[in-house]
Write a structure and sequence with these properties.
Keywords: Membrane, Transmembrane, Transmembrane helix. The protein has about 130 residues and is an alpha+beta fold. It folds into two domains: about 10-30 and about 100-120, no CATH class; about 40-100, no CATH class. The protein is built from four helices and four strands; from the N terminus they run αβββααβα. A two-stranded antiparallel ribbon has the order 1-4. Strands 2-3 form a two-stranded antiparallel ribbon. A hairpin with a 2-residue loop joins β2 and β3 (about 50-55). α1 (about 10-30) runs antiparallel to α4 (about 105-125) and α2 (about 55-70) packs antiparallel against α3 (about 75-95). The longest helix has 22 residues, at about 105-125.
Length: about 130
């Protein structure tokens, strides 16, 4: 007789149902989270030595790096300048995001939690050798 997931009989059904429940719960949870960007040309990306560095300041070395790349594509300093500027800009955007939970009813939250935790329980039970 063929064995299911985890070597137990019927483990495949628990595995699939648990996996579907976890995926559904994770989707509903992530779908109920709101990400609010709080970054613009006046926003402070981060501070260097106590001085604020805005996204506009980050774009200045980026523009010079791109200019150096267009003048001589083999100029490693231009590539480094442009690359560090892009990394700093992405870091500033991520650092200034506000992540908050959307307004949902308690019933919606309970359904999400039951799907996540119940799915995880079924999934892990299916992996246990029976």
């Amino acid at each position: 007789m063929a064995r299911g997931a985890g070597g137990s009989d019927g483990g495949t059904t628990s595995f699939i149902i648990g996996l579907i429940m976890m995926i559904g719960g994770a989707y509903l949870l992530l779908n109920s989270i709101i990400v609010v960007p709080n970054f613009g040309f006046g926003a402070v990306a981060f501070r260097v030595g106590g001085l604020p560095v805005t996204s506009g300041f980050i774009l200045i070395p980026f523009v010079f790096g791109v200019g150096m790349i267009f003048y001589n594509a083999q100029n490693w300093a231009g590539w480094i300048l442009a690359g560090v500027s892009v990394v700093a800009l992405v870091f500033g955007v991520i650092a200034n995001m506000q992540i908050q939970f959307a307004r949902i009813s308690i019933l919606d939250l309970l359904i999400i939690l039951v799907l996540l935790v119940g799915g995880a329980g079924l999934f892990l039970r299916s992996l246990r050798a029976g």
